[in-house]
Design brief:
By secondary structure, the protein is mainly beta. The protein contains 10 helices and 34 strands. The strands form 7 sheets. It has a 15-stranded antiparallel β-sheet that branches. Strand 9 and strand 10 form a beta hairpin. The chain is elongated.
């Protein structure tokens, strides 16, 4: 049920729209006509989205949509001169007469500027695509950057985040040699929203807190274009402070088309040929182009094995007013040898059916990335002069599913559109295994920490036989988010006179989101004084194995090392990596003794189930003042109700068996907030290739889910 307060405020917005509609209806003549048509390339018949059509001497005009169609409404009977401009094409003027209550169809064919000094220019697909992107960018109502499908296909982007990184103001966060996430204008995580054809993707972060949407699992071969909004309009969700990211899907073209993409690479670091991409796209249009069907499937495999060196530093405090340079010390260094194989696959379906007065669409989007990770670590601790050896193995799945129906109709002299969709996001890492061992007194006291982390590494002595196995752990993480939403908008053009015209638009959105975050952990300690002695448990489980122990009698790290020869680390020949783990042996030992592991209840205290209901309404206008100025004011109302079921954990003892660690009880909290969010955008375009844009928007950033959770420890 929609809360009563939301209903009242949405009704208020609707009343504003109706009053404005009545006023505009009285101003506009009942005998007004319209011009409709499609803009295409004169030679290839390819559609030209973002073409600018203006009626000379007036503020009346339109921009062609993604399929090249345009509509200019509310025209007084008479003769007009249409001026059509498109970057990269010759400007065109068309004289046209519009009668009372008449709809004039005028298709437009533009010629590419194909000669310079009499020489013909050959335009490649990438240049054509970027011209379309530039024109869409110039015709956009807000501040928007666009990457075309042709640009994405021509360049070897590893995933969708890489493609997005080609836009200004976007920085990339990398992992394993490819983009793992993006920051827009310096803001990452939940500061950005992500849509696929207007369907919002919910984030599923394994940390359980962030609203960020993972983009690394989306293959660039699934994308038909990208739009990035940096200034916002009231007709979109307002919980964005960085940028609004919109992925476009490939669309069905006339006639039967099959496109196949193949690529094979080589990872020189890992000496691996598991670097391949495959994509196939099939499309056609039926029933005199009224029905379009596009199916796209992708698969890629990447070996992302690599070495990482990370370090931590601190500074020594100097006396007050001292002018001496403060020495910086390296307190720790970490060498990480990582083997990782990533497999992505997905498919998209895009179907559209053109009605007499509109269009129906059905879209589906599914992508999946499986990651198989094995990682060994040498961690050098400068403070206590120890080396910690760590090993981790896990399989992780990241998945997105979106499916939706949408409609667009010419109705009551305006345009109505609606969208109904379901989206899912899943991140899962079941039974991740890790082991840790400590070698004490391993770093020389002669080490000078001010000479950097390499100095720590070079003054260390390794001995796996004396590195005590301290613990082994299992950890499972799962975060799943599901969203159902309905959106509707209505846009009505108006004309006060030939110099002032535009549109008024209103609409609303209602969505419900369910999110479940679950994590579980268990561990086994191997010290002689441990409450549960893993050394004795492992020896009893494998009595026929010869177990090596250190001086204190605990199992040592050497039992799980398959190669004691130091290896070169990265490209630094004088830095060595020690003791890669025998993961098969470690997994066998851990799984056979898993029943003895002690449950880590404190981890489970972070689990929650979250429910969000969201309602919004808005009203806005686009006012064209003469041929060069567009003013877009508006206001949006949003209401969010968040209910979280979490846990209260009363801890009685930090370790040991479950009955002495503490106990759980359920706790629930509910939060509600609502906002009025005014916005305006101003566009001044003295030339078709140049414009100035100014925006003032009020948006918001919703808290992470741990901030909503009423959990107690």
């Amino acid at each position: 049920m929609v809360p009563q307060q939301i209903k009242k405020k949405v009704i208020f917005l609707l009343s504003l729209f109706l009053c404005f509609w009545v006023m505009m209806d009285n101003v506009s003549a009942s005998t007004s006509g319209k011009i409709i048509g499609r803009v295409t390339d004169a030679k290839t018949n390819e559609v030209l989205p973002g073409a600018n059509i203006l009626l000379e001497g007036t503020s009346l005009g339109a921009a062609s949509d993604i399929e090249g169609y345009y509509v200019i409404s509310n025209l007084q009977p008479g003769a007009y001169t249409m001026i059509i401009t498109y970057i990269g094409y010759k400007k065109k003027n068309i004289r046209i007469n519009v009668g009372a209550n008449q709809t004039v169809k005028q298709d437009i064919k533009l010629e590419y500027v194909g000669t310079v000094d009499g020489a013909e220019i050959v335009v490649v697909a990438q240049a054509e695509g970027q011209m379309a992107a530039i024109n869409k960018q110039l015709s956009a109502r807000g501040i928007t950057n666009v990457v075309s499908e042709a640009r994405i296909q021509e360049l070897p982007d590893a995933n969708a985040a890489e493609s997005l990184g080609r836009l200004p103001g976007v920085s990339i966060q990398r992992s394993g040699g490819e983009a793992a996430g993006v920051r827009v204008r310096g803001l990452g995580g939940g500061a950005n929203t992500v849509y696929v054809e207007g369907m919002r993707m919910p984030g599923a972060d394994l940390g359980g807190n962030s609203r960020a949407v993972g983009l690394a699992n989306i293959s660039s071969q699934m994308i038909g274009g990208i739009e990035l909004r940096k200034a916002f309009l009231p007709d979109r969700d307002a919980d964005v402070t960085g940028g609004g990211i919109e992925f476009k899907l490939k669309e069905a073209a006339p006639n039967f088309n099959v496109d196949v993409f193949l690529r094979q690479g080589y990872n020189g670091f890992a000496r691996s040929k598991q670097m391949r991409d495959f994509a196939v796209t099939i499309s056609n249009r039926y029933f005199d182009d009224r029905l379009g069907v596009m199916i796209n499937g992708v698969y890629d495999q990447k070996d992302r094995g690599t070495d990482y060196l990370t370090a931590r530093y601190d500074i020594q405090v100097t006396p007050k007013n001292s002018e001496d340079i403060v020495p910086v010390r390296a307190t720790s260094a970490r060498l990480r040898n990582r083997a990782e194989l990533r497999n992505r696959y997905g498919f998209t379906v895009n179907m559209d059916y053109r009605l007499r007065n509109g269009k129906l669409t059905a879209k589906g989007f599914y992508n999946n990335m499986d990651r198989r990770v094995k990682e060994s670590i040498n961690a050098y601790q400068g403070e206590d002069r120890s080396i910690v050896y760590q090993a981790t193995k896990y399989d992780q799945t990241d998945r997105n599913l979106l499916a939706g129906l949408a409609g667009e109709y010419n109705l009551f002299g305006g345009r109505l559109d609606w969208r109904l969709y379901h989206s899912e996001s899943l991140a899962e890492r079941p039974d991740a295994m890790s082991a840790s061992a400590v070698l004490t007194s391993a770093i020389s006291y002669e080490t000078d920490p001010t000479k950097g982390p390499e100095n720590l590494i070079r003054h260390a002595s390794h001995d796996a036989s004396q590195a005590k196995l301290s613990s082994t752990r299992f950890r499972s993480l799962r975060n799943e988010a599901l969203e159902n939403a309905i959106v509707s908008n209505f846009e009505l053009p108006f004309r006060l006179n030939n110099k002032i015209a535009g549109y008024i638009k209103f609409g609303g959105k209602y969505r419900g989101t369910r999110r479940d975050f679950q994590q579980f952990g268990s561990s086994l300690e191997y010290g002689i004084g441990s409450l549960v002695n893993g050394t004795e448990i492992v020896k009893a489980a494998f009595p026929y194995w010869e177990w090596q122990t250190n001086k204190s009698g605990a199992i040592n790290y050497a039992n799980f090392v398959n190669d004691f020869t130091p290896k070169n680390f990265g490209s630094e020949g004088d830095i060595k990596f020690y003791y890669p783990v025998d993961f098969d042996k470690l997994e066998l030992v851990m799984k056979r003794t898993q029943e003895h592991y002690v449950r880590e209840m404190a981890r489970e205290a972070n689990n929650y189930r979250n429910r969000e209901t969201f309602g919004a309404g808005y009203i806005m206008a686009g006012i064209n003042i003469g041929p060069y100025i567009t003013f877009t004011p508006g206001v949006r109302y949003e209401s969010n109700i968040n209910t979280t079921n979490a846990l209260e954990f009363i801890e009685t003892q930090g370790a040991g068996y479950t009955h002495v660690q503490g106990k759980f009880s359920n706790v629930t909290a509910k939060a509600k907030n609502d906002f009025w969010l005014p916005m305006f955008n101003l566009k001044i375009q003295p030339f078709n290739w140049f414009d100035i844009r100014v925006a003032m928007t009020r948006t918001l950033s919703r808290p992470g889910f741990n901030s909503y959770s009423p959990r107690y420890l």
